[in-house]
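Handoff note, outgoing to incoming analyst
You'll be picking up this chain. Sequence as last confirmed:
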Amino acid sequence: MDPITIIGAIAACAQLAGTTAQLGLQLYRFYCDVKSAPEKSKELCDEVSELSNVMGELARTLKAVEQQCDVSNVISVDSLEKYSEFVKDFSSRIQVNKNETKKKLKWPLSIKDNEELLTKIERHKTTFTLALENAVLNVGIAHTYFS
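Most recent structure output, in case you need it:
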């Protein structure tokens, strides 16, 4: 991975963490406003929030890794691109036009949608948690090596 790609991955991770946090907040507000949300909707809100935390921590850790060692084996740009597409798709599914009052009162996702999204979120969370653990190990190794 060349330095430009590395810097881009770190910036993308930080941006995706912020986007995920906004998505989680929007989803939670929607959940609170809608009385007929399916059972798994609260779990979906919680998982998006958790994923946002993982992404934020990964962005911070990648920045530390970048300063101490090579980040090329920590996370793939492909993983970040796939996650970015997932977030865009997810966000578009819960967008409601301000003029569509009826849609504001109905949860935009079916039970099946909730379950599919939970599965995808779990997959992304696992990928980024492993990247975070790998980054922490790299920081620890670099710290031990240079101390």
